[in-house]
Amino acid sequence: MRALTWHGTRDVRVETVDDPEIINPRDAIVKITSTAICGSDLHLYDGVIPGVKPGDVLGHEFMGEVVDTGRDSTLKKGQRVVVPFTIACGGCFHCKSQQYSACDNSNPVEKQDMSATLYGQPMSGLFGYSHLTGGYSGGQAEYVRVPFSDVGPIVVPDHLEDEKVLFLSDILPTGWMAAENADIQPDDTVAVWGCGPVGLFAIQSAIVMGAARVIGIDHYPHRLELARKLGADIVNFRETDVREALLEMSGGIGVDAVIDAVGMESHGFAIDNMLDVAKQKVGIGADRASALKQAILAVRFGGKVSIPGVYGGMTDKWPLGAMMEKGLQIRGGQTHVQKYTKDLLAKIEDGTLDTTFLISHRLPLEDAPRGYHCFKEEQDSWTKVVLKPGMETTA
Amino acid sequence: MERETRNRFGGLLAAAGVTLSAGLVASFLARRRAWHGDDAPGYTQPRSFGDYDVTGRSVTIREPRQKLYEFWRDFANLPRFMENLEEVRQQGDDGDSVWVIKAPAGRSVEVETKIAREEPGELIAWRSVEGSDIDTEGRVTFEDAPGERGTRVKLIIAYKPPAGEVGKRVAKLFQREPAIQARHDLKRFKMLMETGEIATSARTADQTRAAQQENG
User: Fold this and answer.
1) Nearest chain A Cα distance for residue B194, angstroms
2) Do A110 and B197 touch (CB under 8 A)?
């Protein structure tokens, strides 16, 4: 089959690789009809996530048609499914607590040592996201092997086209959980750093959850415009002092909740950020966390900090004093996708949520490298790229 | 000699943190304090067990104690999750068996074991008979975890690599970070019990770890 493979920093290629096979009884094989490039794929593209190997197939936002099933799969050939990026067994302590992204059993044993060393306990398995998370082949391909297919994939009705439901695989539940982790109350003012896909969906979710005011922070005019269209107020951090603006926009109290939808490659002009950039470049990477640091200073005493943005390692110069003295609640985590898919599908069906506004580009799988390049370099206009393996190449 | 070894081993494994079904809690606690002073399993402490290497690991499995015990007690099941184990052959009905252990260069080592102690649903202990290639004893305990969490399974293995050519090979084998090996084996046991399968990220059947080991 054809698949998008990683070869090094800013070097991804579409190549022919072996087709996936059913290996375990609960597996299914899905023929991909739509797959997206995620903002977190750009961390792989930029080479700041450890444990990626040349030839690895990327992609963790995908959907398609079931074409083969293992003997214990509950799926049927021909069904259309959206597949969560988190691989979860459904039977362990964490899965039973609906903490699916912390599944004990989905990361192969021999791959667990690295994340166990980094974090104290091993990570669960994720599709197409380095060997730290299992080394699973991802969905930017014609076919994918889906383990625990009786737990993760959600069957979608035929009348909902791919683009309406594709984002159930990651960014819609991720935006939703980000808002949920901010514990939004009706009077709350919520500030969201980053108006990329997850930030925009977090804004949309916060509004659905009834926040009094939502403020989107970015510097790309088009992305800010999308945030405004969703109903948020906006702040351009290149034109405005964010902390002062947020203090004034919250009547001098500080915002009630903050959401960092930026993650480890945060922009920023402070000297500590430049040092972090330099360290990442020479491979002793500290996570750049300037958005999160700013969020912690901007949030009010007793406020809530939600971190959907991806971080992988350590960071320097952490505002520990502010975190303790202000009595903050901090929540993060990879998304427990399986917990949200059913409810969010219902919200898509009844029209509460429409995520199709985000898609700016549709490309054949063969053009995926161009999709990565433009999504990285032209972030203002390339808000979301959907790859279609079946689509005719035009170029 | 055999009895002496067993007694010595009994003490060794207890020092390594096996709680067994200690009769009187008070006397047990007093004994334990005398050995290491705090409540951590002995195998987590940097201390010497004489000529023996002792390693131990525990894992929590969300399944009933009895089910886990029964699966383990059928020793023929062990190679399904113990990577270094090629085969276990039962000998008679009293729990004697021959464990065929993978050794470097495609060879294998056979260890004849006897069940040293057994408490149904709670504990299985085994030891190698005299004259085996490896002088070893192991013990697995099954204990109810709090609430709905299932069962805590603790595996402790002690061994003394013998001298000679075979010994060198065995030593080399066991020096492959036995604590990591024990943890990996227990995690695979957990996967098999909780999910019915052992996770692999291979894309094709011939890329699985098992297939690749088989093909050298």
Assistant:
1) 6
2) no
